[in-house]
Design goal:
The structure holds two protein chains of two kinds. Chain A has 19 helices and 22 strands. By secondary structure, chain A is α/β, with parallel strands linked by helices. In chain A, strand 13 and strand 14 form a beta hairpin. Chain B is mainly α. Chain B contains 15 helices and two strands. In chain B, strands 1-2 form a two-stranded antiparallel ribbon. The chains are: A alpha/beta, B mainly alpha. At the A-B interface, helix 10, helix 14 and helix 15 of A face helix 10, helix 11 and helix 15 of B.
Amino acid sequence: MTEPAPALKTDETVPAPPPADEPGDGPHDVVLRLTDVVKTFPGVRALDGVQLEVRAGEVHCLLGQNGAGKSTLIKTLAGVHHADGGEITWLGQPFAPANPQAAMRAGIATIYQELDLVDDLNVAENAFLGHEDARFGFSRRRAAAQKTREILSRLGHPEIPPRTHVRDLPAAGKQIVSMARALSHDAKLIVMDEPSAVLAHDEVGNLFRIIQGLTAQGIAVIYISHRLEEIREIGDRVTVLKDGRTTAANLPARTTPTRDLVSRMTGRSIEYVFPPRRPATEEKPLLVVEGLSRKGEFADANLTVAPGEIVGIAGLVGSGRSELLETIFGARRADAGTVTLNGKRVTGVGRAVRQGMGMAPEERKSQALLLDEPIYKNMTLASFSGFAKAGFTDASGERKAAEKTADLLELRPRDVTRPVRTLSGGNQQKVVVGRWLLDDTKLLLLDEPTRGVDVGARAELYQVIHDLAARGVGVLLVSSEVPEVLGLADRVLVMREGRIIHEAPAEQIDEAAVLDLVMAGSLTTESILEGEPA
Amino acid sequence: MTTQTAPPEAPTKPERRKLDENTLRNLGLVGVLVLLIVVGIITKPDLYSDPTWVKNNFLTILQQASAIGVVTVGMTFVIIGGGIDLSVGAIVAIAGVWSTTLATQSYGAGGMIFTAIIVGTVVGLVNGVLIAYGKLVSFIATLAMMVAARGLAAQISGKQTQISTNSTINDIASTRPLGIPLLVWILAVVVLLGWVLLNRTTFGRRTVAVGGNPEAARLAGINVKRHTMLLFALSGLCCGIAAIMLTSQATSAQAAMANLYELDAIAAAIIGGTLLSGGRGTIVGALFGVLVFSTITNLFAINNLPTEVQNMVKGGIIVAAVLIQQFRFQSLTKLLKR
């Protein structure tokens, strides 16, 4: 094992500034002002003096690592939490919403990362949930549908029928419904918590058009994202939080150098820092996938992964990449084709795991973790039987092994008896990866390994993935972030509409080429209606 | 795996939060038990002044708790594993009736015990197969089994009470090794085994994983379906044991025996801290839950109060226990979420 500390170096990736057609720093009214806001929980000072100033019609970006206090801050604005100290002024008045309804009535709407829609209600019912238009207790469905239609048109999506069940909409459509709900309350400030996390590349473009439409109507937006390039594209000003404190306020979103933003978030300057690539080893393949197909998801997938090789799959959400990964792992049944690991056929998750395959799925919380269980039990979830003697678990042996892995991954906090729920997103992801480190895994499948992971923890995860490959583990990786695929992988596969359309060594392809392949014939707004299979 | 050695042990707080929660709850239940006994002393001071009566009454409470306690251990496993078993009472009945038919009784005590345990386990297994592989919701599958198994029990017994003529079986309830009824010993052994199974074995670990996050368990290579099936079989096995215990106590079995055991067992598990949504629960808590109920029953019996009032009090206790639990759970999650 090599030194696990990530190589820190500065890497400036400032995209070309977009055309200056934004309203500029005109005489916009300040609608929201936070001064020295403090919020403590038993044992934690989650907010420790936050300053924030939001003007009407601007997109104000909040930047900060996981655990910096962004979530607490927006929940305070949303009336979920109540500030212990400091001052919040909303439209010139002191503001202390007693509950979420009060915040809504005051005109502050929040769109959480995990969308809070009711799947079995239709679009209109969701948009007006909690303040249904009713007469004598009977809901006025036609009126609601009509109003919803108007709102959806305002959002640029008149094609979404108000009577569609939300369950049948793809992620992007659901997000639009969330925004429709915000507008149904006549919101003057919309807080969006990582809205792009669930969206594919072109859908983010739609989202940005909607946001621009909103700000043109004078609505202020607080925008939270881990993706700096988005902040550059959509943001007007940036406020950076670190450890519950504002470390920089009202920086210009487009011109502030990346290095400055990152260093204010982390105290270091890193963004995409990839360890140096090793020469690819020519060996007989570890994983061979031949003609793998699943109806409506992907077709005729052929690929190989050699020991110690990192293969990256680039593609949009809905291109079938996650489904392909899950089928290789045996979590979905293939309609046709074979998966072979070390010459042996793989069918079903149980056999895949026993043969040395491991997977870190896309949805950490719902697919990988037992949130209330301690770290070490989560790490040994795939291997506790191996520790056990005659069916009796060996908790102290598991703890020791988990501690070793925790050190290897620089897990923070290192106390492996803590419930996983208390960890940040990046550290939770380390627990999931650590699970397979413990299990002597030969092939690791990673689905969006850095989603919702802050910049600093990302670099560490990249290092971990490289270290694994250096030990001879084959890695098959899926990511929405093209630079990540290019930076990590030795070989890149591009997927579009369920097919692998291109394969190239990573050094022979660049971001523009991948995006070009991925986007050609890309999904248009109609696809929101059709709904991609989940 | 790595050549890196662990740095010096940092001061750790091993699972303190969770430990505290469980210990607190168990202490609370002990408090309730003490309270119930104090009420008994206040209402019946004359009885409580007799040490022999106190000792015998104490053993009576334990004995009353024994059969339902065994069922509750199985139920706790099922609930932690993310399911629910509404058919436990019916399984006890079918196992009891089947093991006391004239034909079975002709095989002697061993045959009767074997029959009860096999019948219970097989019926539980049927539940498990329907739920795990037939993809029925456990509520529905076991609801259907509850009706069907009682029907079958009535069919087999011809709606008659079947007297057990086997003295070995009948003596189980009256034997007192070391002065403690054998039924209480059986309960103690089952609780101990249940505790070990849940907390010290891979089976227990799988149970928590399957109930806490079935998808994560599946993707970690755990055979979720097979485990779910086994959990229901385990519950059926416990019912089979309980059937023998009840048969011994009554020296007979009938289709209506163990009536509403499913409710008592679920209630005991819940007030003992088992999360109805699965993934969390304790055997010790469930045992305390059973003891609280049997102590209430006893309190009402010694005061000659009607069972209607007793049922109302029981209902109130269930609601209060869950309310308290929810309150604590909420404040806990608030604390953790930030």
